Amino acid sequence: LISNVSVLHETAKQFADAITTWRRFEKISASWGTNFFKHHSYRLGGLHRLAGERAEAFEGYRQALASAEALGDLFHRQWIAAELGCFFLDDDDREQARHWYEQAAAGARALGDPLRLAESLVGMALASGGGGDLGEARRLSGETTTWSDLGRKLADALTGGDPEVARPLLPRPRTKLNRPFDLVNL
């Protein structure tokens, strides 16, 4: 019920109410597990982002990332790092954006996820001012078997060598951490 009411507030763009409602979980129990806090912190960060509270948003995402690290959760760690890259790229903080995209690229390599690695390489190029060879990112974007449409769109966007064209295709921070575990399409 708490989650659903929070989503209703979010949908109505009542972000302060969504945050207050979401924080009720903290009052129910102090002994939630690390996995719960990973999801809770991520959503709290996302709600703060929507409310325009950038420092609080980053803190929520950072806490979610710390929980993912504590759990050895490479999958969510990679996603959060990639989204933080975009978070800082949107703020034109290229140094922080590059740091997070480097973390995301390392995570994508560890997972063996060509599409997420391609996205991270594009983010790194954007954070570096648009320079660099995007050939590897273009090649990798075509190697995904699960998200072939997105891979094709990313490869097409990179054809001209301008990473700005691909920027809208990069993962953006959200309010819900749940993602399909999509490395293999059976």
What profile does the largest beta sheet have?
A: none
Helix-strand pattern, N to C? HHHHHHHHHHH
Span between N and C termini? 34 Å
Rg calc: 17 Å
Q: Helical content, roughly? A: 55-70%
Total helices: the number is 11
Which secondary-structure class do the elements indicate? mainly alpha
Low-pLDDT runs: none
Strand content: under 5%
Number of strand segments: 0
Task: Note the overall shape.
Answer: globular
Mean pLDDT: 93
Polypeptide structure, described:
The longest helix has 18 residues, at 54-71. The protein is 69% helix and 0% strand. It contains eleven helices and no strands. It has 186 residues and is mostly helical.
Secondary structure topology:
Layout: H1 2-11, H2 15-22, H3 24-28, H4 34-50, H5 54-71, H6 74-90, H7 94-111, H8 114-127, H9 135-141, H10 148-157, H11 163-166
Which short descriptors sum up this protein?
11 helices; 69% helix; single chain; globular; mainly alpha; 186 residues
